[in-house]
Specification:
- The protein has about 150 residues and is an alpha+beta fold.
- It is built from three helices and eight strands.
- The strands form two sheets. Strands 6-5-4-3-8-7 form a six-stranded mixed beta sheet. It has a two-stranded antiparallel ribbon with strand order 1-2.
- The radius of gyration is 17 Å and the shape is globular.
């Protein structure tokens, strides 16, 4: 049975499936995955997955994702966008919850068009904007009013 997390560690309405610090697996899960199971997928299979807009137009691909150290939840997917053969690419963090996997397309769908994504906060290949504590706030401000979910 899930337990409530202490208020200082939990997001609203979040529940823990194991006691913090234990290695106990979610009893309803499939166990440890090396590649992919019914419920779990390895990070290396997510990275490189195509991302499409709602019309099915290719926007880019998942470069990596950012995991909240406290909650263990994926916060942002960083999309690689634009460029050619790795040159001129920019990286655009988008809220992970804004992505929905579409088995028909074999990739993620986001309710954002290319122009909106192009205007979003972004960084280059040799930059790490998450070292700036205000960067997450800028992302939240940009996407907050748009509610980019399917």
């Amino acid at each position: 049975m899930p337990t409530e997390l202490p208020q200082n560690r939990a997001s609203p309405n979040e529940r823990a499936y194991r006691e913090p610090g234990t290695m106990e697996l979610d009893p309803s899960g499939d166990g440890v995955a090396l590649d992919e199971t019914r419920r779990l997928i390895a990070s290396n299979k997510v990275e490189g997955t195509a991302v499409y807009d709602r019309k099915g137009e290719h926007l880019g691909s998942v470069y990596n994702f950012m995991v909240d150290k406290v909650t263990g939840q994926v916060a942002y997917a960083v999309l690689s966008f634009g460029g050619f053969l790795g040159f001129g690419e920019s990286y655009h963090p988008v809220p992970w919850k804004a992505l929905t996997y579409d088995v028909r397309l074999g990739g993620y769908v986001i309710d954002i068009d290319a122009d909106t994504l192009a205007g979003a906060p972004r960084h280059g290949p040799d930059e790490d904007p998450f070292t700036d504590p205000s960067y997450g706030g800028r992302l939240d401000d940009y996407y907050g009013g748009r509610a980019p979910t399917i």
